[in-house]
Amino acid sequence: MNKKFKAISLLLVVMVFATIMAACGKDVSGGGSDVSVGIVLPTKDEPRWVQDEQRFKDALSGTKYTTEILFSQGSSAKEKENVETLINKGIDVLIICPQDGAAAGAAVEAAKKEGIKVIAYDRLITDTDAVDYYVTFDSEAVGAAQAKYLVDNAKGAGQPLYLYAGAATDNNAFLFFAGAWKVLQPKIADGTFVIANSSEAVALKDKAELSRDELSKIIGQVTTNWDPNEAKNKAQTHLTSAAANAKGDVLILAPNDGTARAIADVFGSDSAVSSFVVTGQDAEKASVQYIIDSKQSMTVFKDVRTLVKDAMGMAVTLLDGGTPETTGSYNNGKIDVAAKQTDVIVVNKANVKAKLVDSAYYKAEDFTGLE
After folding, report:
1. Which residues contact 182 (CB under 8 A, 6 or more apart)?
2. What is the pLDDT of residues 156-193, one digit of tens each?
3. 8 Å CB contact between 231 and 287
4. Tell me, what's the pLDDT at 10?
5. Predicted pLDDT of residue 6
6. What mean pLDDT comes out for the span 76-105?
7. CA distances from 116 to 12, 109, 313, 336 (A)
């Protein structure tokens, strides 16, 4: 065999190999990647996300697809690094719960450039067209349910109302608060409730619908950043400066369970507070025990088992080459993102066993004093 023929043969081998490798490249059917579904969650420091990790793994078991789950630990920079890691592992679908909805845009845009389908999970990613789908609970319905509980448990006119919100970087915090405000505002405007801890909310008390900027002004005053310690410090500051008529029987809009427990501990230790009703959400074990012990009034149960199944079901549909079912859409500031919404359930002392134990979400032995 002469040298020229050897060179041609070698070139043909290289070309065939390159063609085979190209055929094995990224494909939304999921057949060619090492990891089919990449998942990025905000932190390992909250029980909710650790539980979600296992639920996602369970939801994909029994399929031909694989997953890798990474945590951002409260850092948008780490989140972007996690997405890049998953891109390099050949994922076809990215499920991401952003640490900061706006900051996550750069990360998902990098994924989109690689042909990866992006599903925002639980929190919307804003100001980018690089989001394909959004799986969520109806966040405004969560806030409305919290507010309705306060309205239903009010004691007379002129009752002090303390407002708290989630993080100003989280779009859900705005949706929760907007939903709550629509229910609370008529009672604020007619004097049934008197806002005790936000001058911005007082200034807007006659407005039934608030703009994003107006919501931002209030949230800027009462944000907890989803941090129980920050919630505790704010509650202590508010009670220290509160006049006598801002105590007694009080109502408290707390955004989630972690902050609700912290705020409840503060209000419960003030002898001038004769009673309080405090909201929450997520049905965390510790808050379920608080509800049983009458330390927290309610929680909005978002059955994340269903949310996880919806998100992973959407991912598998995409991997199989199909079009996922959606039930609505959310504008993220750039586009309307097609969404699948999951219902929420109000849980209090009267129905905690039926909703959380009888449904096998928790075990009875996880709690004391359960009737």
Report:
1. 140, 144, 147, 208, 209
2. 899 999 999 999 989 899 999 999 999 999 999 999 99
3. no
4. 54
5. 52
6. 96
7. 32, 10, 16, 19
Structure tokens at 354: 């039926």
pLDDT band (50, 70, 90) for residue 368: very high
The per-residue pLDDT for range 316-365, each reduced to its tens digit, is 999 999 999 999 999 999 999 999 998 899 999 999 999 999 999 999 99
Distance of CA 140 to the CA centre of its chain: 12
pLDDT of residue 8: 52
Burial 305-326 (b: 16+ CB within 10 A, else e): bebbbbbbebbbbbbeeeebee
Distances (CA, A) of 250 to 44, 157, 257: 34, 11, 18
Residue labelled with tokens 């801002």:
246
Q: HEC profile for the chain?
A: CCHHHHHHHHHHHHHHHHHHHHHCCCCCCCCCCCCCEEEEECCCCCHHHHHHHHHHHHHHCCCCCCEEEEECCCCHHHHHHHHHHHHHCCCCEEEECCCCCCCHHHHHHHHHHCCCEEEEECCCCCCCCCCCEEEEECHHHHHHHHHHHHHHCCCCCCEEEEECECCCCCHHHHHHHHHHHHHHHHHHHCCCEEECCCHHHHHCCCCCCCCHHHHHHHHHHHECCCCHHHHHHHHHHHHHHCCHHHCEEEEEECCCHHHHHHHHHHHHCCCCEEEEEECCECCCHHHHHHHHCCCCCEEEECCHHHHHHHHHHHHHHHHCCCCCCCCEEEECCCCEEEEEEECCEEEECCCHHHHHHCCCCCCHHHCCCCC
Q: Give the chain's radius of gyration (CA, Å).
A: 24
User: Are 245 and 271 within 8 A, CB to CB?
Assistant: no
Q: What does the pLDDT look like over 235-281, one tens digit per residue?
A: 999 999 999 999 999 999 999 999 999 999 999 999 999 999 999 99
Give 227: exposed, middle or buried? Use CB within 10 Å, 0-12, 13-18, 19+. middle
